[in-house]
Design goal:
With about 90 residues, this protein is mainly alpha-helical. The chain is about 55% helix and about 0% strand.
Length: about 90
């Protein structure tokens, strides 16, 4: 693998004069800031789209609440008895 430090130092050496030309009282995010913002916006849009797709698969139907009978018990026979047992 070639030594990357030479190419990095060359790139930095070319950017230093550009940095000196920037007005210190007026700093803007520039193209890189826009690209980062756009990538983040696309990521959030993709996540929201994926979340809505998964939420459509979820079944939100709730079980009906059990109705109380005249004895105070619950219909269906699955609930515990409220009357004392004889025996």
């Amino acid at each position: 693998m070639p030594d990357m430090s030479a190419s990095v130092s060359l790139a930095v050496a070319q950017l230093v004069p550009l940095a000196k030309e920037v007005d210190e009282n007026k700093v803007t995010p520039g193209v890189l800031g826009f690209i980062v913002f756009a990538v983040m916006a696309l990521a959030v849009w993709g996540l929201m789209k994926s979340m809505s797709k998964h939420m459509r698969k979820v079944d939100f139907k709730e079980a009906p609440e059990p109705e109380e009978s005249g004895k105070g018990g619950v219909k269906g026979g699955t609930a515990a008895r409220t009357e004392p047992q004889q025996g």
